[in-house]
Amino acid sequence: MDSITLTINGLIASGRVGMTILDLAREMGIYIPTLCYDPSLSLAGACRICLVEEEKTGALLASCVTPIASGMVIQTNSPRVVESRKMILKLMLASHPESCLLCDKGNRCQLRQIAADLDIGLIDLDKLPNYTGTQEVNPFLKRDLAKCILCGKCVRADQELVVEGAIDYWQRGFAAKPATLYDQPLEKSSCTFCGTCVTLCPTGALSEKDKPSLSSALKTFSSICPYCACGCALSLGTNCSGVVEVEPEPRRETANGKTLCVKGHYGWDFIRSKERLLSPLLKKEGSWHECSWEEAFTLAVDKLKEISQAYGPEAWAFLGSSQCTNEENYLFQKLARWGIGTNNIDNGSRVYGPPDPGLFGPDWGWGAMTSPIADLEKARCILLIGANPAETAPLVAYKIKRAVRFKNGELILVDPRWTRLTPLARYWVRPRWGTDGLLILGFLRVIWEEKLFDQELGEHLLGWEEFKKEIGFLNLREIAKETEVGVEIIRDVARAIARQKPLAIVFGNGLWQGENKSFNLRALQNLCLITDLFRNNGGIYPLGKESNGQGARDMGCLPDFLPGYQSLSDEEIRRKFSQVWGQAPPLAKGFNIWEMFAQAQKGKIKGMYIMGENPLLALPDKHFVESALKKLDFLIVQDLFLTDTAQLAHLILPAASFAEKEGTMTSAERRVQLLEKAEEPKGQSLPDWQILNEILSRLKGTPPLANLREVLSEISKLVPFYQGITPERLKKESLFWPCLTEQSPGSPNFWQHVWPPSRLWPMSKERTPQGPGEDEWVLIWGNSLFQGGSGTRSSRSRRLRDISPAMILQINPQEAARRGLADGSMVRIAWSGRSMVLPIALAQEVPAGILFCPVSRGKTPASELAVFAADLSGDFPFPRSMKVRMEGI
Ligand code: SF4
After folding, report:
1. What angle in degrees, to the nearest 10, is found between the helix axes of 708-718 and 326-334?
2. Cα 644 to the chain's mean position, in Å?
């Protein structure tokens, strides 16, 4: 690459074409103050505080927007530069309120810092009155635009990083300010309260509302967002009162850069909730009694032994957590397998999480994303199906929006409802309920018929002949009729998918949570194969829902796999475990989460240990789950709160929150990251790993593992694709598995290191679910932006709770009018002899024939209405939608 030579502060310097003076100066370690500049934003050159002098021409140049040129002689700190900076700053301060003592930005205000650096105290200019008043109606942010210096960072953050377009400049001259259209309050705009503008605002114009402490953070600790599976890295700021603020982690390369969503930024206050469990609780004669840890450990160990001795180890079932760390989940499955001797172990991510490893095996990344989330921006075509990342995985939505808005990517959105991503879609396809897989089959038929695939592909693929035969029998018109998507649309979309490379496929539980799960996922796998996605830098992005569902599965909280998805029956693997544990793991496959409850109901499971999950809310049919839990001889629940499930426990072990412990977590993109302990656990609560370590040690009569490092080292011995991951490395960088050696840089792109899949599935047309009959509706439920998982934490975050909708039924306004229903009318919905009463809300985004219910504080209609599937051999006992009847009351 050509280099450019110039002089900066008397030093000869070489830079690359395209660098600005600021870039080069920073590379040389020369400080130039900035206010409107941020490397993650486009260049604005708005504040001019970064002025430098070009000696030859005498020009004062804004260094952040001026490219370097050969022969330039730059002075970054000449008397003229300093004088000009002072004047610029004084002009800013002339209209800035003198309220530094009361300002939330405190000593992090960049304006104040630069003023101090330039020796500016009180200014000698007349003050310009500029009172706008503070706007703080929403629960998350305050705006005091009198402190705004018009750097435009908030506008660029909104438009470029999270791509919402909620704010822009409003008015001109002295009246100019960043505002929503017509200067409406933020809560009436498309703002999602992600807080990216607050993170980037250099002054106190934008700040967090209702911080637990007005004083600034004194220390920061790295952590991971406890909500969705995107794995956004957090920096927890603490002072003597504990965590006082959360910002995106600035110290290493992360998936999220400068962005977070509202949950990650402001939903952490559940750690300070008054409802936290502060000591172990024991149920005696129907009421709770505090007890010591000694009593709690003794009772837990006695019961673990007693029940397994009386009924055998298979009488215990263990439910691991999609929110606890890798080390905790590893120890939990070790407790089940090594401590008790059963494979009855699963984790909560089976309910909503990515496709299970049985379907997406070793060549598919075991159900994880195969490329980093950042690579979505490189995709030319993004097929988004069965998922609404704008609500459930906001970081993925930011990347999709950036791909479309700035990188010429094309979005194909398959969703019956209007979502925040609909305006960006090149094609918005709305198939009839339950026919997504059939629609994919339609795409396959077109690609095959129009020969839109590499003609030599067939030689490499297993099952090619059978696939060709089956696909040749398909009738596109029939598919169009059943899916209610026009033939020409199916053709156009199929052509776009086949021709635009790289292709990224983002999919969610709309595809895998339902009757046709296997059919849908196999059709999708065939689509990946036929478009040769692997050799064209494409990726698949299954959207998990919980922060460490990936880690819980990787660590073996699964009834049919040992840690690292290793076979229960392979002799060599069993020997390896036996060498480390001193005994081989049990051989027989255990019960999954559905089977555990079915067996508990039959009285075959006598004891259950649930860590960090709330199945009474998360599973369908709370009546069934409750009665199964009540039949247990002993239930241990380890959690932060007295959840609905914990209320039924015999023993409750209080756990520390994510901010109060160390460990590692693995995001959906296979990125392993470190959590640092930012504050002490509340009351007597303990990190889950310490509780498990103690129970294991007492149960087996062995010394406990000395620290977390020993747990991680045991994991690296047993799980081949975690072998190169060490705490020392994680302190400096996050690592993507597979990471086979300590020298390996990890594998952001899965298929660069693993041979891609090559099996095509035979695909005859599946029987599609019958549409709703007369007077029947399809009821769908899904998470809202302000709630996560089963709501254990988000419903105890005061700020998230304040803005979350109560349980409502969204209905198309025209449909409602036809039935004489208005906004707020109460209706009864019924299914299989069960019913519930809910208010309705008119929502244009919901199509006719569908009712949509946002998950509210973890509650879904499935909990009340669904009937636990008696036949667990089916594809998925917990559909994401159901047919209901509705009547006004
Ligand atoms: Fe990131 Fe997901 Fe947390 Fe939002 S909820 S901050 S997208 S990890």
Report:
1. 70
2. 24
Q: What lines the ligand 1 site, CB under 6 Å? A: 225, 227-228, 230-232, 256, 260-261, 263-264, 394-395
Closest CA to 338 of 599, 699, 635: 699
Question: How close is the Cα of 543 to the center of ligand 1, in Å?
Answer: 12
Q: How far is the CA of 162 from the centre of ligand 1 (A)?
A: 12
Dihedral, CA atoms, 241, 243, 246, 251, nearest 10 degrees? 110
445 is written with which tokens? 């038929």
Closest approach atom of ligand 1 to CA 261? 4
From 260, 388, 399, give the residue whose CB has the most ligand 1 atoms within 8 Å, as the site to mutate.
260
Residue with more model confidence, 869 or 159:
159
Give the residue-averaged pLDDT of 323-344: 97
**501 Cα distance to chain centroid:** 26
**Does residue 352 contact residue 509 with C-beta atoms inside 8 Å?**
yes
Max alpha carbon distance in the chain (Å)? 91
In DSSP notation, 628-655 reads: HHHT-SEEEEEESB--TTGGG-SEEEEB
Chain Cα centroid distance, residue 407: 23
Which long-range contacts link 81-85 to residues 24+ away (Cβ below 8 Å)? Answer: 81/51, 81/52, 81/53, 82/118, 84/48, 84/51, 84/60, 85/33, 85/49, 85/51, 85/114, 85/118
- In the reported structure, the alpha carbon of residue 566 is separated from the centroid of ligand 1 by a whole-number distance in angstroms of 30
d(CA 431, CA 620): 25
- Give, in order, the Cα–Cα distances in Å from 537 to each of 118, 808, 811: 50, 42, 41
Q: List the strands of the sheet with 410-414, edge to edge.
A: 427-429, 410-414, 381-385, 503-507, 539-542
The rounded Å distance from CA 223 to ligand 1 centre is 12
**Ligand 1 nearest atom to the CA of residue 396, by list position:** 7
Quick one: tokens of 457? 């592909």
pLDDT score of 666: 97
Residue 84, CA atoms < 13 Å, CB-side half-sphere? 18
pLDDT at 871 over 70: no
Span from the CA of 767 to the centroid of ligand 1 (angstroms): 37
Give the list of residues 6+ apart from residue 449 with CB closer than 8 angstroms, or none.
Answer: 476
Higher pLDDT, 804 or 375: 375
